[in-house]
Design goal:
This protein has 306 residues and is an alpha/beta fold. The protein has helices at 14-29, 45-54, 118-128, 135-149, 159-172, 176-187, 195-198, 223-227, 230-244, 271-277, 294-297, 299-305, and strands at 4-10, 35-40, 60-61, 70-74, 90-96, 109-112, 203-208, 211-220, 248-255, 260-266, 285-289. The N and C termini lie far apart (67 Å). It binds manganese (II) ion (2 copies). One manganese (II) ion is lined by residues 15, 75, 97, 117-118, 148.
């Protein structure tokens, strides 16, 4: 049989990388030995943590294959997110949890479900085909579901994801809540970024009526880890305020696990945050409970109170 390349999407996340590996294992168990797990880009910090922890090799970096090659797509189906010459390839299978954005001129195996993660579907496919889920495979599946559903807390989580996580945690013999937190934390690790990089990673200039502001957001699984840099962050923020002649700088440190944001606020209009959220800034900081969205929970409320 000709070689079959298994691809997740470009800018790969944990689901894409691990689904490629797990799909490869499923194909082999179903008798297709000539398969290769591929990636369309470098892995992120979270995935790196997972593969190191589990002692599993990354898929191979393969960004182009010859026309007419056989491919399997996981965790995506949109050609824009896939290998460049997809239209000239022979897609054998697609296993995915996104909206269908592809059309082919030939039939193929297509399995799509509206669940939180591709691995929840792969988990079902292993069971449906009576293929044993080893400890290693269970660990990969579990990691991806935790990643895509933010530890089953994202609004995309379904009952099927919850069932899969519980069963996979048993097989993998992993305390999924503890492991999941470490894993998500690794994905938000800021240690390789300088203070000025952190302050510009996701900074948006927003004026709340007359109040000239910048709102910057960093995601974390541990607010205390980021707050450990508070003095340096404040020094950096002060420099930006002077340079940009700002009235306000808000740094939202968003806890993706507990869905809260700690905010560090500097500038002459810092009290606007106190008024908008009914909090008291102590030492330039306060916890904004339930606030995770700059677009929905910061801009309108700050503008209304300005
Ligand atoms: Mn993905
Ligand atoms: Mn996914």
């Amino acid at each position: 049989m000709d070689k079959t390349y298994i691809f997740g999407h470009k800018s790969p996340d944990t689901d894409s990388i691990t689904s490629s590996l797990v799909m490869c294992e499923l194909e082999r168990k179903l008798g297709n030995d000539n398969v290769i797990a591929c990636k369309l880009g470098n892995i992120n910090k979270e995935t790196e943590y997972i593969l190191n922890y589990l002692g599993i090799d990354e898929p191979e970096l393969i960004e182009s294959v010859e026309d007419e090659s056989n491919v399997i797509l996981v965790d995506h189906n949109s050609p824009s997110e896939s290998i460049d010459n997809l239209e000239n390839l022979n897609i054998k299978k697609i296993v995915d949890h996104h909206k269908i954005a592809i059309e082919t001129t030939y039939p193929l195996f297509y399995r799509a479900e509206a669940v939180g993660c591709t691995q929840t579907i792969l988990y079902k496919l292993f069971n449906e085909n009576n293929v044993e889920i080893t400890k290693e495979i269970a660990s990969l599946m579990l990691s991806a579901i935790i990643s895509d559903t933010l530890l089953l807390k994202s609004p995309t989580t379904t009952d099927d994801d919850v069932i899969a996580v519980k069963e996979l945690a048993e097989i993998a013999d992993i305390d999924y809540e503890e492991y999941g937190l470490e894993m998500l934390k690794a994905g938000t690790d800021l240690s390789s970024f300088s203070i000025s990089e952190i302050l510009s990673l996701d900074a948006k200039q927003i004026d709340f009526k007359e109040v000239k502001s910048i709102v910057n957001q960093v995601n974390t699984a541990s607010i205390p880890d980021v707050m450990a840099m508070k003095d340096d962050l404040e020094e950096g923020i002060q420099e930006i305020i002077e340079k940009e002649d700002l009235d306000l700088f808000m740094l939202l440190i968003t806890d993706i696990v507990n869905s809260n944001s700690q905010v560090i606020v500097l500038g002459k209009d810092a009290a606007l945050v106190e008024k908008a959220y009914g909090v008291k800034l102590e030492d330039n900081t306060a916890l904004l409970e339930g606030v995770v969205s700059r677009k929905k929970q910061v801009v309108p409320i700050m503008t209304e109170n300005a």
